[in-house]
TrEMBL record, chain A:
<protein>
    <submittedName>
        <fullName>Multisubunit sodium/proton antiporter, MrpD subunit</fullName>
    </submittedName>
</protein>
<feature type="transmembrane region" description="Helical">
    <location>
        <begin position="80"/>
        <end position="98"/>
    </location>
</feature>
<comment type="similarity">
    <text>Belongs to the CPA3 antiporters (TC 2.A.63) subunit D family.</text>
</comment>
<feature type="transmembrane region" description="Helical">
    <location>
        <begin position="165"/>
        <end position="187"/>
    </location>
</feature>
<feature type="transmembrane region" description="Helical">
    <location>
        <begin position="337"/>
        <end position="356"/>
    </location>
</feature>
<feature type="transmembrane region" description="Helical">
    <location>
        <begin position="306"/>
        <end position="325"/>
    </location>
</feature>
<feature type="transmembrane region" description="Helical">
    <location>
        <begin position="6"/>
        <end position="25"/>
    </location>
</feature>
<feature type="transmembrane region" description="Helical">
    <location>
        <begin position="32"/>
        <end position="60"/>
    </location>
</feature>
<feature type="transmembrane region" description="Helical">
    <location>
        <begin position="110"/>
        <end position="129"/>
    </location>
</feature>
TrEMBL record, chain B:
<dbReference type="Pfam" id="PF00420">
    <property type="entry name" value="Oxidored_q2"/>
</dbReference>
<keyword id="KW-1003">Cell membrane</keyword>
<comment type="similarity">
    <text>Belongs to the CPA3 antiporters (TC 2.A.63) subunit C family.</text>
</comment>
<keyword id="KW-0812">Transmembrane</keyword>
<keyword id="KW-0472">Membrane</keyword>
<dbReference type="GO" id="GO:0005886">
    <property type="term" value="C:plasma membrane"/>
</dbReference>
<keyword id="KW-1133">Transmembrane helix</keyword>
<feature type="transmembrane region" description="Helical">
    <location>
        <begin position="6"/>
        <end position="26"/>
    </location>
</feature>
<dbReference type="InterPro" id="IPR039428">
    <property type="entry name" value="NUOK/Mnh_C1-like"/>
</dbReference>
């Protein structure tokens, strides 16, 4: 049983998704989805524990050995992110039970849970697999189901947002298979380890260079790196709140993982730096993204859209960590992936509770809610402070390591810019606080009560995690550093 | 450089460019999806071309044949075709619902309507709407 954990991780939600459709009552489908996701969470806990004890796990799918069959390969990096994705999914599903009942019509709720589990399958699959083409297949499973999730939003703009995401997402995914195809052409293998071994022999060829180019652009579309982020704000703003919480906490992180995996494991950082000024490109795009998106966030009236822009900015920080190109920089990126998932999960779930009560995510409709929904609003404030990077929260930990990495590299100017950008985050968080606490409540808010316990509990689990991992960093920093070490220690060779 | 011998790759590049151009340049949402399909099909050709071995046949074990084409890219493309069809299906379903919600599938008309929605929200926020009581759904569970 334990030896089959790597495949169970992906198979459990995959089988759960169609079974979910069989439930006649949406309420049961929701509970079933929660059960499936909790099982996936337990499996990922087991995997992380095994990896800590035994090192990298290798699983040959269907008993076919690696070069022929598909291989699942779990190391520090995967197992850490598998744990992140499955735990976020489980926490979000607890809140989903009541929120989905309110936000979606009865006849669509079961489909929501089915698409949700498929999306979870795709994300876990991307993380677990060690096969380049398999990454594409799982990427499309998760993308197609997230288009559906977004289109389930009740505003009609959800449909156009989903369509726009579909077009851009498919172009990104197609670029990725072009990249994989060209790599296969030169090496005759799809296994990531084999690719890493064989690519150096054919490094000089233009085919590998174009494979690399296509791949990077495709992944950057998926992870919404600035100029390629246009699909993200609308998709997050108009999707059902639960879908936003799940996607914001996991989807872009998984795309960042794919980027890291290919740059460090498959192509090798030496090759990457010799053919493209990737460090400079990432540095510039990351910084411009942070500033442009943070400024856009300040002007948003819809709080979901505000945090969607802030997500684009936070992706900028992750890319900045990669741009530094040192072990510490990579560790900062990995740390921020984990921490940002905690922050955005808490924030979007809290917004989900607001939508549950007042049926709107406009800031002006939230005027005076601070008194009506004190716990939910306190959660938004703590999540917001964490985004800014106030000490005692996870946001501070990741900014701290990012700044350390920047200083180690000697990039003073960038460090100053990163600190200034935190002030921009403070501005948009302050705008929320001003609307929520210092603007008189509207008359019709008199009936609004605090969110139900079934939503407060998951929100506060994440808020407390925000504080806990801000104080006790042994797990997050420890695993991030180990993962960064293993990626750097053996570049080109087995992870 | 062997230009004619690589004609299948030229076709791939041309199709890819045509498909990509249609996605970017056309306003009609269905035409965009058609462009997307052409773009994806070009990639299928790329994969199938690379699996071809000159003089090779389909990989059927038989004494008469000794040279086989590489079947792996073909199998991969079977998967990619399924993905492509699902993408087109989801896309078309979205277009049907966009037509129902907006009464149009032309991008600029939809954008105008979206901008109107946006402006209404803004006006309401700053108190220009007469009826600014928005609906609070029934508050009992």
């Amino acid at each position: 049983m334990i030896t089959h954990y790597p495949v169970l991780q992906v198979i459990i939600p995959l089988i759960g998704a169609p079974l979910c459709l069989l439930f006649p009552v949406p309420r049961l489908a929701g509970l079933f989805a929660l059960l499936v996701s909790s099982l996936a969470f337990l499996v990922s806990c087991g995997l992380l524990q095994q990896v800590m004890v035994h090192g990298t796990l290798v699983y040959a799918l269907g008993g076919w050995a690696a070069p022929w069959g598909i291989e699942y390969r779990i190391d520090y990096l995967n197992s850490y992110l598998l744990l992140l994705v499955s735990s976020m999914s489980t926490v979000v599903l607890i809140a989903a039970q009541s929120s989905i009942r309110r936000e979606l019509p009865q006849n669509r709720q079961t489909y929501f849970y089915t698409a949700y589990l498929l999306c979870l399958t795709g994300l876990l699959g991307i993380l677990a697999t060690g096969d380049a083409f398999n990454v594409f297949v799982f990427l499309e499973i998760s993308s197609l189901s997230s288009y559906t999730l977004i289109a389930l939003g009740t505003d009609r703009r959800a449909l156009t947002a989903s369509y726009q995401y579909l077009i851009m997402g498919t172009i990104g995914a197609t670029f990725i298979i072009i990249g994989v195809g060209l790599m296969y052409m030169m090496t005759g293998t799809l296994n990531m380890n084999d690719l890493a071994e064989r690519l150096p022999e054919v490094n000089h060829s233009r085919t590998v260079l174009s494979a690399f180019g296509f791949f990077i652009v495709g992944v950057c579309l998926k992870l919404a790196l600035f100029p390629l982020h246009l699909w993200l704000p609308n998709a997050y703003a108009f999707a059902p709140s639960i879908a936003t919480a799940f996607l914001a906490a996991t989807a872009t992180k998984v795309a960042v993982y794919v980027l890291i995996r290919y740059v460090f494991t498959v192509f090798g950082i030496e090759y990457v730096e010799s053919v493209l000024p990737l460090q400079e490109i990432f540095l510039v795009l990351g910084l411009v993204g942070i500033f442009a998106a943070s400024v856009s966030a300040i002007y948003q009236l819809n709080i979901k859209r505000l945090f969607a822009y802030s997500s684009v900015a936070q992706i900028g920080y992750m890319i900045l960590g990669l741009a530094i190109g040192t072990q510490l920089g990579l560790a900062a990126t990995l740390l921020h992936m984990f921490n940002h998932a905690l922050m955005k999960g808490a924030l979007f779930l809290a917004i989900g509770s607001v939508v549950y009560r007042i049926n709107s995510s406009q800031l002006n409709h939230m005027a005076g809610l601070g008194r009506k929904m004190p716990w939910t609003m306190a959660a938004i404030v703590i999540g917001g402070l964490s985004l800014v990077g106030v000490p005692l929260t996870v946001g501070f930990v990741s900014k701290w390591y990012l700044v350390l990495a920047l200083l180690e590299k000697g990039w003073w100017l960038v460090t100053v810019l990163v600190l200034i950008s935190s002030l921009l985050a403070l501005i948009y968080v302050w705008r929320i606080i001003e609307w929520v606490y210092f603007t008189p409540a509207r008359i019709h808010l008199s009936e609004v009560r605090e969110a139900p316990l079934s939503q407060l509990v998951p929100v506060w689990i994440l808020v407390i995690a925000n504080i806990y991992f801000g104080l006790d960093t042994s797990l997050t920093v420890g695993v991030s550093k180990l993962a960064a070490q293993s990626l750097f220690g053996l570049f080109g060779a087995a992870p | 450089m062997n230009i004619i011998g690589l004609y299948n790759y030229w076709i791939v590049v041309v199709l890819m460019a045509i498909g990509f151009f249609i996605v970017i340049a056309h306003e009609n949402l269905i035409k965009k999806l058609i462009g997307l399909s052409i773009f994806q099909t070009a990639v299928f050709f790329l994969y199938i071309s690379m699996g071809k071995v000159v003089g090779g046949t389909a990989p059927i074990l038989d004494d008469k044949w000794h040279l086989y084409s590489n079947p792996l890219p073909h199998v991969l493309i079977l998967t990619a075709i399924v993905v492509g069809i699902s993408t087109t299906a989801v896309g078309l379903a979205l277009v049907v619902r966009i037509q129902e919600a907006y009464g149009s599938i032309e991008e600029h008309e939809i954008q105008t309507l979206n901008a109107q929605d946006q402006i209404e929200c803004q006006l309401e926020a700053y108190g220009f709407m007469k009826n600014n009581a928005f609906s609070v759904k029934s508050l009992d569970e």
